[in-house]
Amino acid sequence: MSATGLTIYGAHFSRAARCIWLAEELGVAFEHDPIAYADPALKAPPYVTRAPMGKVPAIDDHGFELWESMAINYYLANQAPNALWPADVRSQALIMQWSFWGMAEVEKAGIAAGLHTGILPAEQRNPETLAGGMKVLAKPLSVLELALHGRDYLLGADFSLADLNAASIMWPMHAGKTDLTAWPRAAAWLDRCLTRPAAINAFALP
Fold it and tell me: Which domain holds residue 48?
């Protein structure tokens, strides 16, 4: 058990980053084990007893073990009252809506777009893969663009867990400098979210 009681497992360049980001936003003390997604230790004890899928992230909080990044963020956000997790059930439902939207509608195509725009070395980028990813993203990005009309964040004027979860899913597009000029509000929102100090620390950006 860590000295703080909470350990977050997973490298910065993984889904663990969204858990690290939230912990930093909340001011929660934690220790970080930057085990990488390709590390053979993920498939062997003691890690696989903590996270039976053998993937990151996972946490150990005073002996309570949990895996899946969105479940971890829901757990961390509910430890104490905070501005990122509003008390009213409708705001909480909207947070879950945008979190599931990101996982279901954006993540796979967003990773492809980010990789083949700028994350991968130029010789490994595939224009057809990029075009396919952007075709899939056109509808969800248009939905996001409309939702941000007249507001800075998904729930209104203030940054919340809805923004953190959704923006963390879209991080590859931001890192790869994917062209989002067709969705200017979404692009500005993503930049606002991912240039927060806690986000920069979580993703270990320069």
Answer: 6-77
